Amino acid sequence: MEPTLEINDKVLVVKNAFTPIDIESGDIVIFYNPESPYSEDYFDEYLQALKFWNFNTSDSILNTAIIKRVVGVGGDVVNIEKDGKVFVNEKQFIVFNIDESSYFQNQTYTVPENEFFVLGDNRINSQDSRYIGTIPSRNIIGKASYVIFPFDNYKKLND
Predict the structure, then answer these.
(1) Which residues make Cβ contacts (< 8 Å) with residue 131, sequence separation at least 6?
(2) How far apart are CA 86 and CA 100, in angstroms?
């Protein structure tokens, strides 16, 4: 997600555990990799949602979490051109201050209902929906709202 997020940035996440969150194109979300061995355990998910601060431990389900930017939602058609430009339903999807580069093939994706198409802001070096597929809504942990640490990187996300 560089340059939007730096390697050691910590983000404040509005979790999707208690109330549904409206996720739109452009939002930065945290989700479980659809290819990971994660299984739904509502009790464990509830306990994780109550925590204010999660420390990475070997038994944490957050070890499989990924952070990316939502480009398309259910029903959208996402086109990625060879020059790196991204179009959603024939409108150009623009994220400022990222390198779109030209290491792509022309590709078209149709996003299934209740799923999301995500891309990393560091597009050349990102394992995203181009490689792992669309993200089912049940895999969404929440939406990143702010970079909260280190303090000199503090900023609001999803603007």
Answers:
(1) none
(2) 9
Which residues lie closer than 8 Å to 47 by C-beta, 6 or more apart?
A: none
Evaluate whether 9 touches 151 at the Cβ level (below 8 Å): no
Q: Give every residue of the chain whose pLDDT is below 70, as ranges.
A: 1-6, 12, 16-19, 36-64, 99-103, 146, 148-151, 154-156, 158-159
Residue 16 belongs to a domain: yes
- Length of the chain, in residues: 159
- Please indicate, yes or no, if residue 3 is contained in any of the structural domains: no
How high is the pLDDT of residue 62? 44
The CA-to-CA distance between both ends of the chain, in Å, stands at: 15
pLDDT in the model for residue 55: 44
- The CATH number assigned to the domain holding 65 equals 2.10.109
Pairing of strands 140-149, 135-136: unpaired
